[in-house]
UniProtKB/TrEMBL annotation:
Name this polypeptide is given: Glycoside hydrolase family 43 protein
Phylogenetic lineage: Bacteria, Bacillati, Actinomycetota, Actinomycetes, Kitasatosporales
Membrane spanning residue stretches: none
UniProt record similarity statement: Belongs to the glycosyl hydrolase 43 family.
Pfam families noted in UniProt: GH43_C2 (PF17851), Glyco_hydro_43 (PF04616)
UniProt keyword list: Glycosidase, Hydrolase
Limits of the Beta-xylosidase C-terminal Concanavalin A-like domain: 309-505
Single GO molecular function: hydrolase activity
């Protein structure tokens, strides 16, 4: 009998394309990170429900070439696969802006991970699977469509055979994201189809040999929320794992859209968990992804939530801090002003890659962000970023505080006021309720977007805080901006050096 329930998503915010493996009683999961450095966030769990980020697979610039100019938002690192074989951890991935497909390895999941070993195959979404005799297969989405298979030496990256076509899916568009699993006497090939939008789906085939021929699962796709009113949408890109009690589970991506039609999602594609049953003919059966479900059996292992406030007292940034494209050593420091994160401008605008930004994923539909900022003679503040053409920021510099909205080709200062000298607190609140005052961009008295972003001089919860502006959140959504990522909220400098004494991210209840 189950003693616990869990809520989906199990890893919230922009954590798409999950891949999982189990080693003993421990689970390890890795996600896509696209243009952000460090790359490929790595999580650990003991129960498939509570996940703690223990690092990033690619945390050295030499591992993650994202050259500027050339790299772009939603480029970089696509869907990874993590596996444990022969006493080592293996991650295979695609860097679409810097070299193609590669493998990295580590003895311990916390690292250090090796430099990339490049594989001479075209396509994206590579997977690794081993035969009992040690033969290693790399399934991947081929450049011409459909799933290809290559026999490789994962140590050297040498392609020993192939690639050759293996299965093209059930007929939906964009068959991709293959994961090859040996279960009993069968090889199962799990793929994504339908595109990563509302038509996203999970399909499967099986064969007696890893080479095929492949038999489609009856009733493919196994899982899709397309055309339903379920609050979780875009379900797909799944991986399988077996728990110690013998039960099977699926991790997959999905989104939580909101707002007036057409509803949009702002947090990006998140990681969800759902149970898998097997029918009498040996096919996996997956029910629609629930918002709440009975948890896997066995021990319950909650993990502590990360501290809401980062006082920057350590010697290194926590693994959840990320930066677009790169984070040059000279652009940030924890030692220049002990107890503060000092950011040094590397570009004059957030509208063009090459600026200084350190942020974290927005992981809750409602939240409050505050930071104490000392601009000195520089300029910087807090930015809510989707990409270079879609971001809102509240910044201080030159004796004034202002709120700027960049939406596509338009950039507008929507509020400004004089600022006192020295350190001050800036704040951003994100609210999903539509019972809020109209923003300067609206005229009907209510927002019809998924949320409202309010910008403050001072702590929004403290007396004396000054509201500056409210903006409709729909313009920082994937459906408006396009791409594969989600919102990232963080600190930046676009002029001189700016010191941040602390940064606080607090989930808040919906109004």
């Amino acid at each position: 009998m189950f003693d616990h329930t869990y809520d989906n998503p199990v890893i919230s915010g922009f954590h798409p394309d999950p891949s999982v493996c189990r080693v003993g009683d421990d689970y390890y999961l890795v996600c896509s990170s696209f243009e952000y450095f460090p790359g490929l966030p790595l999580f650990h769990s003991r129960d498939l429900v509570h996940w703690e980020q223990i690092g990033n697979v690619l945390d050295r610039p030499a591992q993650l070439p994202l050259p500027l100019p050339g790299s772009k938002a939603s480029g970089g690192l696509y869907a990874p696969t993590i596996r444990h074989h022969d006493g080592r951890f293996w991650v295979v991935n695609t860097n679409v802006d810097g070299g193609g497909n590669f493998v990295v390895t580590a003895e311990r999941p916390e690292g250090p991970w090796s430099d990339p070993v490049w594989i001479g195959i075209e396509g994206i979404d590579p997977d690794l699977a081993w035969e009992e005799d040690g033969t290693c297969w790399c399934a991947h989405s081929g450049p011409a469509g459909g799933i290809n298979l290559a026999r490789i030496d994962p140590v050297t990256g040498t392609v020993l055979e192939g690639p050759f076509p293996t299965w093209s899916g059930s007929g939906l568009k964009y068959p991709e994201a293959p994961h090859l699993h040996r279960i009993g006497d069968w090889w199962y090939l799990l793929i994504a189809e339908g595109g990563t939008e509302r038509g996203h789906a999970v399909s499967a085939a099986r064969a007696r040999s890893s080479r095929g021929p492949w038999e489609d699962a009856p009733g493919n796709p196994l899982l899709s929320h397309s055309g339903t009113a379920r609050p979780i949408q875009n379900t797909g890109h799944a991986d399988l794992v077996q728990a110690p009690d013998g039960g099977w589970w699926m991790v997959l991506l999905g989104v939580r859209p909101r707002g007036f039609t057409p509803d949009v999602h702002v947090l990006g594609r998140e990681t969800f968990l759902t149970p898998v049953e097997w029918d009498e003919d040996g096919w996996p059966v997956v029910a629609p992804v629930p918002e709440r479900h009975a948890a896997p059996g066995g021990a319950w292992h909650p993990v502590p939530a990360p501290p809401a406030r980062d006082d920057f007292d350590g010697t290194a940034l926590a693994p959840h801090w990320i930066s677009p494209f790169t984070r040059p050593d000279g652009s940030w420091s924890l030692t220049e002003r002990p107890g503060s994160l000092v950011l040094r401008a590397t570009g004059p605008t957030l509208d063009t890659p090459g600026y200084t930004f350190v942020g974290r994923r927005q992981q809750h539909l409602d939240c409050r962000v505050t930071a104490q900022v000392d601009p000195g003679t520089g300029r910087g503040g807090i930015c809510v970023r989707l990409d270079e053409a879609h971001h809102y920021e509240v910044e201080v510099g030159g004796g004034e505080v202002r709120v700027v909205a960049r939406i596509g080709p338009l950039s507008e200062t929507v509020a400004q006021r004089s600022a006192p000298p020295g350190p001050l607190v800036l704040g951003v609140t994100v609210r999903t309720s539509d019972l809020v005052p109209a923003s300067p961009l609206l005229t009907d008295g209510h927002t019809t977007g998924p949320d409202t972003l309010a910008f403050w001089l001072g702590d929004p919860t403290a007396p004396g805080a000054h509201p500056l502006a409210e903006l409709d959140g729909r313009y920082l959504s994937t459906e408006v901006a396009a791409g594969f990522t989600g919102r990232v909220i963080g600190m930046y400098a676009t002029e001189g050096s700016v010191a941040f004494d602390w940064f606080e991210y607090v989930p808040t209840p919906a109004v």
